[in-house]
Design brief:
By secondary structure, the protein is mainly β. It has a single domain, classed as Porin (Beta Barrel), CATH 2.40.160. It has one helix and 14 strands. The protein has an eight-stranded antiparallel beta barrel with strand order 1-6-7-8-9-10-11-14. A hairpin with a 2-residue loop joins strand 3 and strand 4. It is elongated, with a radius of gyration of 21 Å.
Length: 234
């Protein structure tokens, strides 16, 4: 965990230095920049899923068992692009993280991935520091290894879902083509499909325990965390 956060800080620091150098070079060649237009983005945040991912639930399809693990907190990195105007911005990020996972006495690894489309509306427009409200959607998927079992053999399980993001924070324009951001984000997601060895299944059709009642809903997951980011306007 410590090494992961060190890598995040180093990555953001290198990106910031490279961005400042690029801005200085651009400023020497161009008389004026508006700070608007397409931008490249990098972000970092701690991430842990709560809700049904508590390390106790087993869902069954005949002789195939899916173990819904507990995911410990890990550092997540996001990379993407967006478009910025004076009063708003939107961005598309690919967020990824690697988590230690646990199910009862079983230890494993989970790989979280998500494509997120977020929009931010600035509450103050004429100052370098701009408070914002964030609303977005996401398509997360989660690979748990091991996460499924058939006849005593263990396999990787992959969960696919849909999510909603809301948050608030502040964007600080530190140069005409460079800005940093920080704030809090709440993510709520529902995982509706899972696959392991063989054919995938709708999660609502799986059963609680072998031969038990149908689960009849999506798996719920949520997280609340802070996020820091860096943007370079092209």
């Amino acid at each position: 965990m410590k090494r992961t956060w060190i890598s995040i800080v180093i990555s953001l620091g290198v990106a910031a230095c490279a961005s400042v150098a690029a801005c200085a070079s651009a400023a020497a060649q161009t008389p004026q920049r508006t700070g608007e237009g397409f931008f490249l983005a990098v972000s970092g945040q701690p991430l842990a899923l709560r809700g049904d991912f508590d390390g106790r639930l087993v869902l069954w399809h005949f002789d195939k068992a899916f173990f819904v693990p507990e995911l410990n907190q890990a550092a997540a990195l996001g990379f993407g692009l967006g478009f910025k105007r004076k009063s708003w911005l939107w961005e598309i990020l690919h967020v990824r993280s690697r988590h230690p996972s646990a199910f009862r006495d079983r230890a494993g690894t989970a790989f979280y991935r998500s494509v997120e489309i977020d929009g931010r509306s600035f509450l103050v427009r004429d100052f370098p520091a701009k408070p914002y409200l964030l609303v977005g959607i996401s398509v997360p998927w989660l690979k748990v290894d091991p996460g499924a079992e058939i006849s005593g053999l263990k396999y990787r399980a992959t969960y696919i879902g849909l999510g909603l993001n809301i948050g608030l924070g502040i964007v600080l324009e530190i140069a005409p083509s460079l800005f940093v951001s920080g704030g809090g984000v709440y993510r709520a997601a529902g995982f509706f499909y899972v696959s392991g060895e063989g054919k995938g299944r709708d999660i609502g059709d799986l059963r609680v325990g072998s031969g038990g009642d149908k689960w009849n809903r999506w798996l719920k997951a949520s997280s609340l965390s802070w996020m820091i980011g860096l943007g370079l306007v092209l």
